[in-house]
């Protein structure tokens, strides 16, 4: 099995730029995931995010999770549970409008730090999208513009903790799925593993690396690249010991953005004899469909959007 792709972003600034861009291209085409180091988010700041997130879980969420486990009779499971996940979560919205000031139970310090973290991740997401544009032969800014809609992109964070689970063979931390949106930036626990992706029919661990950010591609990038880049199925395996922290930030299209394969890529593919074309749709319509089909294969979602395609409004470039 090949090694999980780990990209040193510093090397984009020197003689190894071409090699590093090739590593990113290969990761996007063959993995749908990669891990980045030296991304210019300070290590001490990331340590603060991790500390505050773990403190918040202990203080505000751990007891609630124990009560949920008792209520749902999830202790000592005998049969497999397929309609729930062994996770404790809350969500933050950053764009188009932040809701951080309204989320209950967050300390002032935690609110401030998460707001700052979101700004750093937003900038990093847009840098990464431009690197993808460069590799795809699209003009700089194409993907950011494709995500824009009338109000700009949607950007939010899911903060999750995966507590120790006595029966990890009976329940997943998070069931297998692909991500619906654009590009995902994940700060995961540096010690406790659990995230896996499906590659060539096998589940592969995404290694925990301190101060790294894990990147994965969502369904919308698969559509815009007409399948050149793929969103990849992934899951979280519950662990018997050690609580795993996960802070996943989703840089997605705006709700009214019209998503469709980039015409420049379709022209290239027509020359190569590829006739398959992904659907064109409004992102919000895709999300409505996804809500009921998240833990199912993505292909029927694309087919359903293809069937509705005739009703989508004309894109404004």
Care to describe what's here?
By secondary structure, the chain is an alpha+beta fold. 37% of the residues lie in helices and 21% in strands. It is built from 8 helices and 13 strands. The strands form 3 sheets. It has a 7-stranded mixed sheet with strand order 1-2-9-6-11-4-3. A 4-stranded antiparallel sheet has the order 5-10-7-8, with no helix packed on it. Strands 12-13 form a two-stranded antiparallel ribbon. Helix 2 packs across helix 3. The longest helix is centred in the first third of the chain and has 29 residues, at 43-71. The protein is globular, with a radius of gyration of 20 Å.
Compact summary:
It comes from Hibiscus trionum. Residues 107-134 form a coiled coil. It contains eight helices and 13 strands.
